[in-house]
Amino acid sequence: MLLLSGGVFADRFGRKRVYLTGVAVFTAASVLCSLAPSLGWLVVGRVLQGVGARH
Fold first, then answer.
1. Would you say 6 and 55 are in contact if contact means Cβ atoms under 8 Å apart?
2. How many CB atoms lie within 10 A of CB 5?
3. For residue 31, how many C-alpha atoms fall within 13 Å in the half-sphere facing its CB?
4. Each residue's pLDDT tens digit in the chain (55 positions)?
5. C-alpha span between 17 and 53 (Å, rounded)
6. 25: CB partners within 8 A, 6+ apart
7. What predicted TM-score, i.e. pTM, was given to this entire model?
8. What letter would DSSP give residue 38?
9. Which residues, at least 6 apart from 34, have a Cβ–Cβ distance to it below 8 Å?
10. What separation, in Å, do the N-terminal and C-terminal C-alpha atoms of the chain show?
11. Per-residue model confidence (pLDDT) at position 55
12. Which residues, at least 6 apart from 44, have a Cβ–Cβ distance to it below 8 Å?
């Protein structure tokens, strides 16, 4: 599902911008994972990493 929406966003906003946004989301999620105070926050961070990796 995220691959299709990533393609639509890339067509509308440009591939480079979508790629850099994905890298930024993945990086921010990685920081969140490293600072996670509980298992719940770690799971949220990992989900966001998955979203960032797909765009």
1. yes
2. 12
3. 5
4. 778 888 899 999 999 999 999 999 999 999 999 999 999 999 999 999 999 998 7
5. 14
6. 48, 51, 52, 55
7. 0.86
8. S
9. none
10. 11
11. 72
12. 32
Helix (H) or strand (E) holding 46: helix 39-54
Is 19 strand, coil or helix?
helix
H-helix or E-strand containing 32? helix 15-34
| Identity at 6, one-letter amino acid code | G
The DSSP symbol for 54 reads H
pLDDT number for residue 6: 85
**SS3 label, residue 14:** coil
CA torsion sign for 2, 10, 21, 53 is positive
**What confidence score (pLDDT) does residue 1 get?**
75
Specify the pLDDT at position 43. Answer: 97
